[in-house]
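Hi Y.,

Following your request, here is the sequence exactly as I used it, all 214 residues.
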Amino acid sequence: MFEAIHLPKLNNLSPTLQSTLLKIMEEAGELARAVLHFLPYEQQPHAKVFSELLGEVSGELLDVAQTCVTMIFVMEDCYGIQAEALIDVHLTKLEAKGYGFDKSQCYRIETAGNFKYMALPRLNLDQVTLLTTVCKIQEEIGELTQYLGKKAGASGEKQELSNDAALRGCACELLDVAQCCFTMMYILAERYQVDIKTLTQDHVAKLRRKGYCA
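Below is the corresponding structure, written out as tokens. Let me know if you'd prefer a different format.
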């Protein structure tokens, strides 16, 4: 299967790179909590709480993906980073790690009006689970923060990279976080018949109700 999602720019807010980094850590923690609550019922689809807990996992997943998109917009608007140009770097890295995927598809990240369009591959991974994906998201966020902290000299260490190189590395790690979100999205769709299109529409409607975007 192959899915793509559209997520909006939160143009009624004023996110910064630092505030968005804090937000992605917050959302990843909430996703981990939702997955841990869901796991005891993973093989009990007829349990009363199954649908509710699965819905919480799905919603938190979109919140993490949304924060990725928000950070991409911030990096483009404030630092001139073009995430779209890094998609080939991302795909090459996946291949170098031995992650198989369908190369006949068109993978891209592009802006369509007030939305960011993301189409990332379905990786052919053995024994991938919700729990391992949550752990992988946390790992990638750790690497993301290294670029903005340690490698940029923000933690007091000697600066390892120029600001431009640190930001580029940050953008590449951000795509890795987004890739993890897509991995979990495919799990939800394939194993639990979650409708990604409806899920995304509900997510955008929630953001509009909160006044975060037009």
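Residues 5-206 form one domain.

Thanks again,
Q.
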